[in-house]
């Protein structure tokens, strides 16, 4: 499982042109650039959509006044010097970095921008009922109900593990998905994939 804050998404933009020995075009750095590309491919971060309460690291090369770590507000925006409010939620790191870079061109020459998601707080599931540790837990890629339950510290002695269910919002409706823990563990029924916002109820 990927712990909160454990997923790091690095996208470098605006590396073409400019002066000075520190400026390189994409693909000329066989060390860090290749390492970043490998990380991107393995984690699929180019597809991750930023959400409210995620924590972002915004790096603008040679601009320490703008570089900062900042949470995404509940309205989905972040505030940066020179740019004021910038929409972040619903965008990938690549898209947000491109938007910031383009906006900064009004004030800076050839800005180089990195966006890193240092903490993912928007994608969570929730455990409630007869579990050891009820509450929110980070939703990791391809997480299932069994994996979600494992983060809850086990069942209490009163848990009715045959009657577990998942509450999920679909098209403005709340759907109830039954989950028989014994049958799933025994291989009689398939495990269930989780979605952000799902609530696992252990009666």
Q: Any chance you could write out the topology, listing elements then pairs?
A:
Layout: E1 10-13, H1 32-43, E2 55-60, E3 68-71, E4 77-80, E5 84-87, H2 93-104, E6 113-119, E7 124-129, E8 135-138, H3 145-150, E9 164-170, E10 173-179, H4 181-185, E11 199-202
Parallel strand pairs: 7-11
Antiparallel strand pairs: 1-6, 2-3, 2-6, 4-5, 7-8, 9-10, 9-11
Would you write up a description of this structure?
This protein is α+β, with helices and mostly antiparallel strands. The chain folds into two domains: 10-119, wza like domain (wza like fold), CATH 3.30.1950.10; 124-202, Outer membrane lipoprotein wza fold like, CATH 3.10.560.10. The protein has helices at 32-43, 93-104, 145-150, 181-185, and strands at residues 10-13, 55-60, 68-71, 77-80, 84-87, 113-119, 124-129, 135-138, 164-170, 173-179, 199-202. Strands 8-7-11-9-10 form a five-stranded mixed beta sheet. A four-stranded antiparallel beta sheet has the order 1-6-2-3. It has a two-stranded antiparallel ribbon with strand order 4-5.
Summarize the structure.
The protein is α+β, with helices and mostly antiparallel strands. The protein has helices at 32-43, 93-104, 145-150, 181-185; strands spanning 10-13, 55-60, 68-71, 77-80, 84-87, 113-119, 124-129, 135-138, 164-170, 173-179, 199-202.
- How many structurally independent domains? 2
Total beta-strand segments: 11
> Which secondary-structure class do the elements indicate?
alpha+beta
Cα shape: elongated
CATH A-level architecture of the largest domain:
2-Layer Sandwich
* Portion of residues within helices: 10-25%
Can you tell me the CATH superfamily of the largest domain? wza like domain
Number of helices in the DSSP assignment: 4
- The ordered string of helix (H) and strand (E) elements is EHEEEEHEEEHEEHE
Instruction: Provide the gyration radius in Å.
Output: 21 Å
Reported for the largest beta sheet, the result is: 5 strands, mixed
Average predicted confidence as pLDDT: 82
Query: Which regions have little confidence, pLDDT < 50, spanning 5+ residues?
Result: 1-43
Q: Strands of the biggest beta sheet: in what spatial order?
A: 8-7-11-9-10
């Amino acid at each position: 499982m990927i712990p909160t804050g454990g997923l790091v998404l690095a996208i470098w933009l605006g590396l073409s042109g400019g002066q000075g020995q520190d400026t390189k075009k994409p693909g000329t750095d066989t060390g860090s650039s290749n390492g970043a590309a490998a990380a991107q491919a393995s984690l699929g971060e180019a597809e991750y959509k930023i959400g409210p309460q995620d924590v972002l690291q915004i790096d603008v090369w040679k601009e320490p006044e703008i570089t900062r770590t900042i949470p995404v507000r509940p309205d989905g925006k972040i505030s940066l010097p020179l740019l004021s409010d910038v929409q972040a939620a619903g965008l990938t790191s690549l898209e947000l970095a491109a938007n910031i870079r383009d906006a900064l061109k009004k004030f800076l020459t050839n800005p180089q921008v990195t966006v890193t998601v240092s903490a993912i707080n928007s994608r969570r599931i929730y455990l409630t009922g007869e579990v050891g540790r009820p509450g929110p837990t980070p939703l990791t890629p391809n997480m299932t109900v069994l994996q979600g339950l494992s983060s809850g510290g086990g069942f209490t002695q009163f848990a009715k593990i045959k009657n577990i269910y998942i509450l999920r919002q679909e098209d403005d409706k709340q759907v109830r998905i039954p989950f028989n823990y014994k049958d799933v563990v025994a291989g009689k029924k398939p495990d269930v994939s989780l979605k952000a916002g799902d609530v696992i109820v252990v009666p």
